[in-house]
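Retry 2 of 3 after timeout on previous attempt. Resubmitting structure tokens to design endpoint.
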């Protein structure tokens, strides 16, 4: 991926609660800007445990939900009511508690299996964001997490999905973080987004965050480091523990 991001920023907050509040505030301000500029707001969600509290804050927000489109940055290939489902987590914390049109929650159809679900998700992105073949759809904001091994979304070190430069969504069959079967947005989509907000909480993330922010390349592949080459605004939102403080 070539090019430089519009800007890179590290924002440090006291703890996980402050991170959730700040993340929700930033999502809402991005939404307000997108709605004012384009009449719609297209957001991709982070999975895992870190964003859940921020989603709970969004459940009480005042906004025109009818103009939001919500995608998933990655999904585990499990049933939508399975405890490992990112969709389930986001619905329970937020989406099921606000009047967002059902058709505007663009779930990953995991029931199709990883490969077919990834292809289906690419079509869904293109259709919803009006991206012609050969072009990359532009999301307004992508929320991401960070794994201790430096993965983000379900782009794990050494995986084919991480190297993917053509398709918008890819299947993952051997994720080192369970469950192994996943669907993830690929780097071209992350790179094209207007803004990326990476949520990082906890001491166990400190080495990966330090590596992602370091000037020099660390010895091992650190996938999240490649976010520096995204075209949009890149914000790392971390709590003090994630900075090792
Ligand atoms: C997933 C995620 C993944 C996550 C990181 C951090 O579905 O597992 O999208 O990329 O963001 O692994 O996970 P935690 O927030 O649970 O630490």
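Retry 2 succeeded. Sequence:
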């Amino acid at each position: 991926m070539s090019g430089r991001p519009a800007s890179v920023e590290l924002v440090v907050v006291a703890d996980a609660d402050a991170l959730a509040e700040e993340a929700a505030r930033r999502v809402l301000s991005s939404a307000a800007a997108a709605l004012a500029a384009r009449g719609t707001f297209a957001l991709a969600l982070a999975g895992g445990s870190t964003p859940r509290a921020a989603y709970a804050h969004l459940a009480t927000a005042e906004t025109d939900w009818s103009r939001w489109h919500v995608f998933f940055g990655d999904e585990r290939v499990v049933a939508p009511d399975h405890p490992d489902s990112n969709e389930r987590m986001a619905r329970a914390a937020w989406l099921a508690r606000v009047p967002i049109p059902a058709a505007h929650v663009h779930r990953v159809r995991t029931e199709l299996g990883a490969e077919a679900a990834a292809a289906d998700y690419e079509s869904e992105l293109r259709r919803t964001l009006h991206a012609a073949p050969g072009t990359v759809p532009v999301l307004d904001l992508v929320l991401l997490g960070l794994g201790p091994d430096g993965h983000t979304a379900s782009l794990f070190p050494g995986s084919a999905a991480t190297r993917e430069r053509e398709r918008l969504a890819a299947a993952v069959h051997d994720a080192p973080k369970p469950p192994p079967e996943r669907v993830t947005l690929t780097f071209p989509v992350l790179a094209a987004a207007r803004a990326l907000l990476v949520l990082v909480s906890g001491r166990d993330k400190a080495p990966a965050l330090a590596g992602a922010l370091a000037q020099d390349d660390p010895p091992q592949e650190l996938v999240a480091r490649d976010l520096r080459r995204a075209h949009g605004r890149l914000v790392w939102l971390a709590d003090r523990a994630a900075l090792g403080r």
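Attempt log closed. Residues 22 and 64 are 20 Å apart (CA to CA).
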